[in-house]
Amino acid sequence: MTKEQVFITVIGKDQKGIIARISNAVFAHNINIEDLNQKIMGGYFVMTLLADITDSPITITQLKKELSVIEDEMDLKIQVQHENIFKTMHRV
Amino acid sequence: MEYSLDEVMETVQMTLYHNFDIRTVTLGINLKDCINSDLDIFKENVYDRVSGYGRRLILEAQELEDKYGIPIINKRISVTPVSLIIEACAESDAPHQIAKTLDKASKDVGIDFIGGFGALVQKGMTRADERLINSLPEVLSSTDRVCAFLNVASTVSGMNMDAVIRLGKILKETAKRTENGIGCAKFVVFANAPEDNPFMAGAFHGVGEPDFSLNIGISGPGVVRSVVEKNRDCDLTELSEIIKRTTFKITRAGELIGRELAQNLSVPFGIVDISLASTTKVGDSVAGIVEMMGVEKMGAPGSTAALALLIDAVKKGGAMASGNVGGLSGTFIPVSEDSCMNEAVKVGALSIEKLEALTAVCSVGLDMIAIPGDTKAETISAIIADEHAIGVVNNKTTGVRLIPVPGKKAGDYVNFGGLLGETYVMNISTFSSHDFILRGGRMPSPVTSMRN
Known about the structure:
The structure holds two protein chains of two kinds.
Chain A: E1 5-12, H1 18-27, E2 32-41, E3 44-52, H2 60-74, E4 76-82, H3 84-90
Antiparallel strand pairs in A: 1-3, 1-4, 2-3
Helix pairs in contact in A: 1-2
Chain B: H1 5-17, E1 21-29, H2 39-68, E2 72-79, H3 82-85, H4 94-109, E3 113-120, H5 127-142, E4 146-154, E5 158-160, H6 161-177, E6 187-191, E7 212-219, H7 221-230, H8 236-265, E8 269-273, H9 286-293, H10 303-321, H11 339-346, H12 352-359, E9 365-372, H13 377-394, E10 398-405, E11 413-415, E12 422-424, H14 434-437, E13 442-443
């Protein structure tokens, strides 16, 4: 079975617990974190997290809904996008 | 990680901050096999076909929006030109009844516009074509989601001036029946209309198409504007390269989503229309890109060259990204829907004559232009004829969507509401074209070998 991977992108003001809360949320749904990158860009905390959702019982739509709670509480922007869009746009 | 943080962020920022979206997914549906000489059975067939596929289109499109995080703004349907399918109906109000059926089916399932209420009359009109044309004011004023079109000219057939004569009167009558003349916004008159265009108001499912065809219109004026903004000092050769690279990426995204949507609906994938299409959102403006390139206001000298360079780069990037580029694939500069165009009209930088010049290189027509309500019907017909002469002679598509706003004169402000935007009424020459237009007949097709 081919891997189903999504990118979770987080943008916002740097604060304690961003990575902890997001990784807890994905772990709870049997989603494996494959890779993680973070840096401060223009004063903002930016993180991209590649997650394997192949074995997860929840859909991308449900995952988005769950993460939107963290998005609101911590005043962040969180995007969830299937990996294929990056493959299509950035690799020929 | 297989992708750098910068690559991921480029895509994310396009959607979050630069209005990158899939402007429309339009499912073309053949209705020829719904024809029945019993109008009630015919209507039922049409309703079931349109509502059934419309419902699925919306569900599947929403799922892909979530999967890829790229908004799909409009979910639409185009159908076989209605004049063809009503040929066998004896009832004089058949066009109106079919229009009402299409309107109801769209509303019931949440399709925002349905195109195809129209006819191809570039060489002449059948009895059914005439019935449909005569029904236009009533249909456009009594339905909400039905979009209409007429193809009155083509490079191989010339221009049907007998049809063009009627259009001035029809537009004025439609305007009179609707607030601010807004019914006219749902009607476009074409030369060389493409059969697979996904954009409204002119989408229809052509006779050369299969039973179904999923066509997609991508759009990213905001994305292109932001890369032009980041490259203020480079020369035009380099700017063209930069625009090409960006367009390549957004077209690839559109192609991915279009193909997957077609597969999920079990219908053939048709085309990607790479037209840049403005919206009323600040920053999502084609005129804004031209101004960012260094022309002070859209319409100033240099605008035609800047727009030609811009769209050529878009076409090159798009053609590399997809083997299925089609539809209109030019640029839309709908005056009322583009905030920078409006500003240019307001300050006097942009005239209808300059807009006509822009269509000679890459714009696909005179789009969403408010004109004085007392403009003579023959003058409206003459504007349509001028625009289509450009299309016919240059072997390209041109469209005209004019709104003669009742009670308004040049310079007056008019608000059409929502996505249709707001604008200032344009000045139209008051010198008469009456005698020329009333000659009628058919303008012969042009010779295509002597190109100057």
